[in-house]
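Researcher: Re-running this chain for the archive, since the previous output was lost when a drive failed. Same request as before.
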Amino acid sequence: MFVIISYDIVEDKRRNKISKMLENYGTRVQFSVFECLIDALQLKTIKEFAESILETSADSMRYYILCESCLKKVDIIGTGEITTDLDFYVV
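Model: Regenerated structure tokens:
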């Protein structure tokens, strides 16, 4: 599934932990926005990690799950392109 994850985290230490974790799952497209091609278990893992770190009275994370037809409607002005799955992987 294609998930856009954005965050607004007040403290640098918490923000860095979340950012480092998300780098393992997706592509940073803005400073606090990642595009992720992940499955349901990976999304659950991300959410559980975030919930263990975030201070919910000050921080927030948002998860936008986009369907295939929604992806076709994404419009980018400026640099960048939609994250895509690789056709092949080098191991």
